[in-house]
Amino acid sequence: MPDPSPPRLEICNLTRAFGGRPVVDDVSLSVAAGQVTCLLGPSGCGKSTTLRMIAGVEQPDAGIIRIDGQPVCGDGPTRPPEARSVGLMFQDFALFPHLTVAQNVAFGLPRDRALQARRVEELLERVNLTGYGPKHPHQLSGGEQQRVALARALAPRPRVMLMDEPFSGLDNRLRDGIRDATLDLLKEEGTAVLLVTHEPDEAMRMADEIALMRGGRIVQRGAPYNIYNAPVDKAAAAFFSDINVIRGTSRGALTDTPFGAFLTPGHADGAEVEIVIRPQHLKIDFDRGGRGPNPTAQDGTPARGVIQRARYLGRESLVDFRMEHDGSILTASVPGVFLPKPGTALWLMIRRDRCFVFPVSR
Ligand SMILES: Nc1ncnc2c1ncn2[C@@H]1O[C@H](COP(=O)(O)OP(=O)(O)OP(=O)(O)O)[C@@H](O)[C@H]1O
Ligand SMILES: [Mg+2]
C-alpha cells in the first residue's frame, strides 16, 4: 500500500562525482505540492548539477528520485526527462525565436487546437500578457520574455517545477515584481518548486524552505526565519549578512569578553568558542554628557570603539568601529537616517539574545 500523500518531489542520497571529485554528495530533500524550496549556496557547490539530475539530463552515480512517490531514477527503470512531468526554467530561458508567443507557450501541449488555445490564453492572462500571442520573442522586453518562458514551462501543468537562477538576467527594478508574480502563479498552480539561487535575498523572499548547500552537501534545511536566526555554523551565518566574530574561551559554561560574559553552554571547559553577531545586533550608545552608556541587562557590558568608516546604503548605514580594547574592527548597522562621522568614539553593546556561539572552526 503506497503512502497516501507522498511528497511531490523526493530525492534520497543523490550523489554525483566528476573526475573522482564528488560534486553532489548524499543530498536528500523533499518538496510538497504548492511549496517552494530554494537550493541556496555559493557558486560551484553543486546546485545546478542537483537540478539537472532531477530533470533527467544528468545521471546520478547513486540515489533515488521520486515524483509523486514513483521512482523516476534509481530503484527501478530510469524515466527520460520528457516522462517526468517536470517543468524547467533556466537563466537562459531561450524562447524559440521563429515561433510566436502563443506557439512558444503551446509548445509542450497535446495537439488539440481548441485545448491549446484555451490554455495559452489563460496563461498569457495570468502572466499579464493578454494579446501578446501573435508577437515574436524579439518584439518583447526581457521581463516579458521571462513571463512567456514561465507560461511555457507551466502550460503542460508539470508536477514539479525546476528553476535555475531564473531571475538573474533581469534588472533589479523588474526582478522583485516578476519574482512575486511568478510565486503567486506557481502557488495557484500547486506546483512543487525547487528553485536554485546563490542570492540569499532571493531565497529569503521566495522560499517556504531553504536548503543551504556547501561543497556538494546540504548543511542546513529550514524556513527562512530559522535559517537566518539559528544558523548551523559560522559560514551559514555569514552567507546571509556580514558578521562580527569575537573569540573567547569557555569556562564553566561562560565565556568572558570585553562585552561581558556570554553563556556558552555545551562547550567544554577550556574550549575556544566564536561568538557571532550580525551588524544589526550590535547596539550603539552615546556618552550621555559624561554619564556613560546605559545598557540593559540584555546588552551586557559596553565597550568603546572609534568610528573608522561609515557607509550610507540607503535603508541602513554600515559603520566600522576600531575597538579600543584590542584594535579589532566590528561592524554595526544603523538605520539609514544616521551617518555618524569617522573619528567619533561611541559605545557598543551586544544583544545577548541575538548572538550565536560556535566552536572555533579551523
Ligand atoms: N559535466 C561536468 N563535468 C565536469 N565537472 C562538472 C560538470 N558539471 C559541473 N561540474 C563541476 O561541478 C561543480 C558544481 O557545478 P554546478 O554547476 O552544479 O554548481 P552550481 O552550484 O550550480 O554553481 P553556480 O552558482 O556557479 O551556477 C563545479 O565545480 C563544476 O565545475
Ligand atoms: Mg548553477
TrEMBL record:
GO terms for molecular function: ABC-type ferric iron transporter activity; ATP binding; ATP hydrolysis activity. SMART domains: AAA. The keyword Transmembrane does not apply. GO terms for biological process: quaternary ammonium group transport. Gene3D superfamilies: P-loop containing nucleotide triphosphate hydrolases. One of its GO terms (cellular component) is ATP-binding cassette (ABC) transporter complex. Keywords: ATP-binding, Cell inner membrane, Cell membrane, Ion transport, Iron, Iron transport, Membrane, Nucleotide-binding, Translocase, Transport. Pfam families: ABC_tran (PF00005), TOBE_2 (PF08402). It comes from the Bacteria. Residues 9-240 form the ABC transporter domain. This is ABC transporter ATP-binding protein. It comes from Paragemmobacter kunshanensis.
